[in-house]
Amino acid sequence: EIVMTQSPATLSVSPGERATFSCRASQSVSNKLAWYQQKPGQAPRLLIYGASTRATGIPARFSGSGSGTEFTLTLSSLQSEDFAVYYCEQYDKWPYTFGQGTKLEIK
Amino acid sequence: QVHLVQSGVEVKKPGASMTVSCKASGYTFTSYGITWVRQAPGQGLEWMGWVSAYNGNTNYAQKLQGRVTMTTDTSTTTAYMELRSLRSDDTAVYYCAREGDYGDYNDYWGKGTTVTVSS
Question: Helix-strand-coil percent breakdown of chain B, rounded to 5?
Answer without folding.
Answer: 10, 50, 45
